[in-house]
Amino acid sequence: MTDTPTQLFIGGAWVDAADGATMPVDDPATGEVLCHVADAGPKDAKLAEEAAVQAQAEWARTAPRVRSEILRRAYEIILERTDELAHLMTSEMGKPLAEARGEVAYAAEFFRWFSEEAVRIDGGLATLPDGRNRMLLSRRPVGPCLLITPWNFPLAMGTRKIGPAVAAGCTMVLKPAPQTPLSSLALAAILKEAGLPDGVLNVVTTSRAGEVCEPLLRGGRIRKLSFTGSTAVGQLLLAQSAEAVVRTSMELGGNAPFIVFEDADLDKAVDGAMVAKMRNMGEACTAANRFFVHRSVAEEFGRRLAERMGELVVGPGTREGVDVGPLIDRRGRAKVEELVADAVERGARVLVGGRTPEGSGCFYPPTVLADVDAGSRLMDTEIFGPVAAILTFDDEDEVIRRANDTPWGLVGYLFTEGLDRALRVSERLEVGMVGLNTGLVSNPAAPFGGVKQSGLGREGGRVGIDEFLEYQYLAVAVS
């Protein structure tokens, strides 16, 4: 912890908040304060914005190969410091070290992917239909960006946004979640070491998000917002972005259905459920929320899943052998407790878990509920915890209707051995991503994003850089 920056990163320099304010960073496993970091206010945000604006023109002119090599160096540094970054992440947000190491590798891969995309930005030349003019298309960076990242994947969500912005030639102001600022500050230090010019990336850690972000979005100099977080906050940011017509990418909430048909391989389905539900203790927008299991296999699926969930070891993420760390804070745990209590009051059976352990820390046990009533609150709420709620269904049309009966549409999971059914159901699910016989869809090479109230735009994949580029059309008269 002693080597981790705790100041704001503005214009290539580490500085205190203008008013001297700091905020604590807590360890969710113990409730103890790890350290204090600078708590930025509106003045600091304007300084960060100014640094990004001043650096934009020169950075946009920088050769794509230079931008590519900076990202490649940063990728290599991240991998070299896997253990250091994993311990830092576990300390501030709780996930077990094995999972944190996996996130470090995942985060680094975004930098490698976009280092390769940086040199593949192209345009085009064509003759217009009337034959009198040529159409020359070029692509250029959208301009200074505001990047807002969540606490659940503090390193990977940073690289998923910073990578394409750097590759496209955009400068940035990054505002990480107040619960997990240390991973973002460590990432800024790595990029500086990798050769990123001063002012291209600026990091403002703050507990005063509204005071910091709203003036930037309404001011007109920030031209792009990329946000990952809740739908409610995303809707507020969209409204604030409208005044200056800021371009937006929104990766918002989810309410993922996990569908198990009668012909599913139950070993595959349970393996997939463990990944889709328990990745990051269930604190993921991609987490399976509603388990729709065909009535003929529901009892067996529930039994197997409860057995697997019951074997998981709960404890501090830094302890050897721990599978499930603490939830992010007491408020997050209280939400999970209330949702489970509501489901049980409505008749759900607890197959495993369901009781909060005594002692310090924000722990909640892996929990499986069967016979969940469709009117339970957890059916239309993003649980963000290690709770699998099982409902039964009888036919295909019924389960598709129920799976789609939500304002969210990020991801869905489907388990069946029938190819026809797999294609048919996938096409009818109102989601941006489908996991077919797998519980993991996230990959830097794939376009990540949802439909309906789950967001706008895509991150990652070949299209990820498009969010940070504009087209310019040049009409060339030919005599």
CATH superfamily of the largest domain: Aldehyde Dehydrogenase, Chain A, domain 1
**Gap between N and C termini, in Å?**
67 Å
Mean pLDDT: 97
> Which parts are unreliable, with pLDDT below 50 for 5 consecutive residues or more?
none
Cα radius of gyration in angstroms:
23 Å
- What's the CATH class label of the largest domain? Alpha Beta
* Major beta sheet, strand line-up: 14-15-16-13-12-18-19
Structural class: alpha/beta
- Range of helix content: 25-40%
Q: TL;DR of this structure?
A:
With 479 residues, the protein is of the alpha/beta class. The protein folds into 2 domains: 8-252 and 454-475, 3-Layer(aba) Sandwich (Aldehyde Dehydrogenase, Chain A, domain 1), CATH 3.40.605.10; 256-443, Aldehyde Dehydrogenase, Chain A, domain 2.
How are the secondary structure elements laid out?
Elements: E1 8-10, E2 13-15, E3 22-26, E4 33-38, H1 42-61, H2 64-80, H3 82-93, H4 97-117, E5 124-127, E6 133-141, E7 145-148, H5 156-168, E8 172-175, H6 181-193, E9 201-203, H7 209-219, E10 224-228, H8 231-242, E11 247-251, E12 256-260, H9 266-278, E13 288-294, H10 298-310, H11 330-345, E14 349-352, E15 367-370, E16 387-393, H12 396-404, E17 408-409, E18 411-415, H13 419-428, E19 433-436, E20 451-452, E21 455-456, E22 469-477
Parallel strand pairs: 7-8, 7-10, 8-9, 10-11, 12-13, 12-18, 13-16, 15-16, 18-19
Antiparallel strand pairs: 1-2, 3-4, 5-6, 6-22, 11-21, 14-15, 17-20
Helix pairs in contact: 1-7, 2-4, 2-5, 2-6, 3-4, 3-6, 4-5, 9-10
